[in-house]
Amino acid sequence: MTVHFAELTSPQVGELLTGARRPVLLLPVGSVEPHGPHGPLCTDHLISTGVCERAAHRLADDPDLRVLILPALPYGVTRYAAAFPGAVSVREETLYNLVVDVRETLAAQGFHHLVVVNNHFEPEHVATLRRAVRDTGAGYLDVLRRANVARLTAEFRSSSCHGGRYETSLVLADRPDLVDDGALSGLPENHVDMAAEMAAGRADFLAMGMERAYCGAPAEATADEGLSTFDTLTDMLVEVVRDVARRP
Ligand SMILES: [Zn+2]
Fold it and tell me: The pTM is what?
């Protein structure tokens, strides 16, 4: 049985509403954004989709829930990487309207339980998603919540983690073919505390000292670490799904 909503036929979607299991829909969100000289532009929604697929499979036999994944929203608010080829940004209102429209269309059909799953952390992007879920009552996997950050790797906790060991490990776990090995090997660690840089008012990668559009230590990435991080992110998402499913 598929876990992808858009692979169903219309009558099959109709049956979800009358079944014994409450349908919960997941909306993976990312960005099209440079991730160093080695990582794919699609890194963020690849991670979001990977977490959604694992959560859907983990809950596949749940007697009370039926979890399905909506087509991913690959575009986000991505201005920090504007100096590099391949950054494709949408405006806040575009992202907001897309999330709200998807949410409201589905709710009008009776799908009231939706969770937005995001792994692109530019502040304006995150603020827009938080506003969209607050205004529509959708659920949100908030990886940046303090309690969640504490469960993730040392690099993620250090906030020096764009296209670094954390994200590159996740890509290696699911799509190693998309990592440029030649560009990755020997890439030096570039320590940039992004949270501190942003707090100091710097709002693009070059000003932050990310001359090659990454920070952290991508050369230390491993598929094993990626699988372990996916496990942790899946734990978090399953908790949110169960929480959202309890709502009326
Ligand atoms: Zn990323």
Answer: 0.96
- pLDDT higher for 19 or 27? 27
Distance CA 94, CA 105 (A): 16
Token pair of 64 as six digits: 């009370």
CA dist 220 → 125, 181, 229 (Å): 28, 12, 14
**How far does the centroid of ligand 1 lie from the alpha carbon of residue 115, in Å?**
20
CA of 230 to the centre of ligand 1 (A): 14
d(CA 72, CA 117): 9
Please provide the average confidence, as pLDDT, over all residues in the chain: 96
Alpha-carbon torsion 27, 161, 78, 92, what sign?
positive
User: How far, in Å, from the CA of 163 to the mean position of ligand 1?
Assistant: 6
pLDDT digits over 158-189, tens only? Answer: 999 999 999 999 999 999 999 999 999 999 99
